[in-house]
Amino acid sequence: MADHENSKLDTVIEKVSDKFHGSDSSLDSDDDRGSQESSPKSEVFRLFGREKPLHQVLGGGKPADVFMWRNKKISAGVLGVATAIWVLFELVEYHLLTLVCHGLILALAVLFLWSNASIFIKKSPPCIPEVHIPEEPVLQFASALSIEINRAFATLREISLGKDLKKFLTVIFGSWILSIVGSFCNFLTLFYIVFVLLHTVPVLYEKYEDKVDAFGEKAMIEFKKQYAVFDAKVLSRIPRGRAKDKKED
């Protein structure tokens, strides 16, 4: 009788231990599975080392909503106004001062006649709101603009002192590309092209993000290989600037 009870106790202990071992193995498998699932996510390549969503990179506010076509009516309206302005100034060859003066003449004439005619036709005169430009946004914009200009001047000074050869080559190449683009179109056309690209490239990139990032990763690897070869054969043989040598000493 005692032996029978001991055998039952042993079987119960074995079942309990099997359950614990099974749960431990399932937990281990879940941990392994979670680590396998989390590791590819951490290794996903994004262009320019981007960690935030594209909407937040563009500012996350109303301008980002316009560029990402969150409201299609507003985005289409902004793009349509920009296209109309480009057509007026570039194709019709309308001048800015002429357009402003003609618009001012038309608006003042309509409002003046409406205000005086309202007495005779017994209708309410036009409600013209008072317009005031707030001081704080203007100061914030001026402060941000001055910071960016000073940063650009500091970068140019650093390049001129021969401290960063990579930045020097980047600025030279970028200026050369802009000079080529400027020889084919004026500033207004260039501004309009950039504006259209801001309304099309982010949306297309968000739609085909994975494919573009995969292609960008391959291109970045190839670029690093070519740059390493160029650095070993050319850049490493160029003597450094005096300012950098003094800093190292």
Structure description:
The protein is mainly α and 249 residues long. The protein contains 10 helices and no strands. The model is unreliable at 1-6 and 19-42 (pLDDT under 50).
Which helices and strands, and how do they pair?
Layout: H1 2-42, H2 54-57, H3 62-67, H4 72-91, H5 96-121, H6 135-160, H7 165-184, H8 187-207, H9 209-233, H10 242-248
Helix pairs in contact: 4-8
Number of strands: 0
Oligomerization state: single chain
Overall, the morphology is elongated
Strand residues, percent:
under 5%
Largest β sheet strand count, sense and barrel closure: none
Written as H for each helix and E for each strand, in order along the chain, the element string is HHHHHHHHHH
Supply the helix-strand structural class.
Answer: mainly alpha
Radius of gyration from the CA trace? 33 Å
Low-confidence regions: 1-6, 19-42
Termini Cα gap: 91 Å
Mean pLDDT across every amino acid position: 77
Please work out how many helical segments DSSP would assign.
10
Estimate the helix proportion, in percent: over 70%
